[in-house]
Design brief:
Strand content: 5-15%
CATH class: Mainly Alpha
Mean pLDDT: 82
Oligomer: single chain
Largest sheet: 4 strands, antiparallel
Number of domains: 1
Strand order of the largest sheet: 2-3-5-6
CATH topology: Outer membrane efflux proteins (OEP)
Number of helices: 11
Length: 491
């Protein structure tokens, strides 16, 4: 697109640049919004949110997909949401382990034993007059017993459990953040397919215009009104438009595959997008109000708050290792040489563990926990600044993109008028077809700008909702259920 922008009048390179998602905004775009799903999610590395867990076989016919349908599937089968759900499950499992350290432990045992002991090896190397004692002895016993242990007071274990509760809450907020990211991935993929479809529609219309221009040039050459060079120029233009259409169709197929992967559908499933996401201005909101909303709603920020709380409790837990721990234990059962002569026995005991010197282990744990706490607090403070930046940038992009849509719409209307007048001038013999081809190139560029500005505006709205932490709730409202064509028709 940039090469075509600088050399727009050179007929041999018209529209040779690929029509890709990265070029939707056109060469003069001033809005620095992400132009592909990888840019939105992973900054050069494939993100799990661009993948999915495939579900089901190819359905016959064409599957119609609205924004609601796509979002529902993405929130169910996207790989990022699946992995995040397992992380939450792991946090809950760790909390159960911490809980087990302060709950009673009850064990049961049933034992039957036959023993032959060497008395001499055990120190019974003496004799009793009148009693013969051999070097060994055989005996049996049977024991059925229940044992109970309980930590009555262990502040270290209690603080660990409290920290585990905060970690679970943090994991739950992280899962909510993953849902927001899935919403962004679905919306971006959906919008890229819509933009690619609009590129195909525009390329088809431009090809028809080029075909009509070629027919007109042929007729005028046969009538002796124009030289052969006009016909050759028209044929070159027609071939370039054919190439552009091939590239647009190829790009559309790739964007559909990307969307299918995000949603967990087979890559060869035929789909039709029924939500066109036409231009729809966003209601205005103050930046201060938006920032307050983001700080109250952003799940990644709320997750960091819980991580700070968990880190504080882990430090207290490490410090509590210096505090004595009190526990009780006991058992009850029946024991005898065999089950028939067993009788009940029991033991009860209490213990106080007083840590005196553990080789620096406790101090090391405290310092490690303190370092982790400072790290998480720094991340929390940075996140607040990042949210403020995200909100400010997103609001600037939305406002600028809305203005860009209006400018692109006006440019497109003027390009249509220019092309119409140029065709009339050529048909009436006032000029050669260089003017018409230049007008057609300007028309194609205007279409690129208009389609790109619509994509930029819609994705900027989605990014603003993501910055506010309300993407999942507001996606349907932001994109709307509108069937207005995205691309304006080419005359």
């Amino acid at each position: 697109m940039q090469l075509r922008h600088f050399l727009g009048l050179a007929l041999g390179i018209l529209m040779v640049a690929p029509v890709s998602a990265q070029q939707l905004a056109g060469p003069a775009s001033a809005i620095q919004v992400p132009q592909s799903l990888d840019q939105l999610l992973a900054s050069g590395q494939q993100s799990p949110f661009s993948g999915s867990v495939p579900n089901g076989d190819i359905k016959p016919g064409v599957l119609e997909l609205s924004v609601d349908d796509a979002l529902s599937r993405g929130l169910k089968y996207n790989l990022g949401i699946v992995l995040s759900g397992q992380t939450t499950a792991t946090a809950r499992a760790d909390r159960l382990k911490d809980l087990s350290n302060i709950l009673p432990h009850l064990d049961g045992s049933l034992r039957e034993a036959a023993v032959k002991a060497n008395l001499q090896a055990e120190g019974f190397n003496f004799s009793i007059p009148g009693i013969k004692i051999g070097p060994g002895i055989n005996f049996t016993n049977a024991d059925a017993r229940i044992s109970l242990t309980e930590n009555l007071f262990d502040l270290h274990a209690i603080q660990n459990l409290r920290a585990g509760n905060s970690k679970v809450k943090a994991a739950e907020f992280t899962f909510r953040s993953a849902r927001e990211t899935v919403t962004l991935a679905v919306a971006a993929s959906y919008l890229l397919v819509i933009s690619a479809e609009s590129q195909v529609e525009a390329a088809e219309a431009e090809l028809k215009t080029a075909e009509a221009l070629q027919t007109l040039a042929d007729d005028r050459e046969k009538a002796g009104l124009t030289p052969n060079v006009d016909t050759l120029r028209a044929r070159v233009e027609y071939q370039v438009r054919r190439q552009n259409l091939i590239e647009a169709n190829n790009n559309l197929s790739k964007q559909r595959i990307t969307l299918l992967r995000v949603l967990g559908l087979p890559v060869h499933q035929q789909i039709k997008l029924v939500t066109r996401a036409a231009y729809k201005p966003l209601p205005s909101i103050g930046e201060e109000e938006a920032l307050k909303m983001a700080l109250a709603s952003r799940p990644d920020y709320l997750a960091l708050e819980q991580q700070v709380k968990a880190a504080e409790l882990m430090k207290k837990s490490a410090q509590a290792e210096r505090i004595p721990a009190l526990g009780v234990s006991g058992d009850y059962g029946a024991i005898g040489t065999h089950p028939g002569n067993a009788f009940a026995t029991w033991t009860v005991g209490a213990g106080l563990r007083i840590p005196i010197f553990e080789g620096g282990k406790t101090e090391g744990n405290i310092r490690e926990a303190d370092a982790k706490l400072k790290q998480v607090r720094a991340q929390h403070d940075d996140m607040r600044g990042r949210i403020e930046q995200d909100v400010a940038n997103a609001m600037l992009d939305v406002n600028a993109a809305a203005e860009q849509v209006e400018v692109a719409k006006t440019t497109l209307e003027l390009a249509e008028q220019t092309l119409t007048e140029s065709k009339d001038r050529f048909a009436n013999g006032v000029t050669n077809n260089i003017e018409v081809i230049q007008a057609q190139e300007a028309m194609a560029n205007a279409h690129q700008q208009y389609i790109g500005s619509l994509y930029a505006h819609n994705i900027a709205k989605v990014l603003l909702a993501r910055a506010l932490g309300t993407a999942e709730q507001t996606l349907r409202t932001v994109l709307g259920e509108d069937t207005t064509p995205v691309a304006a028709p080419v005359r």
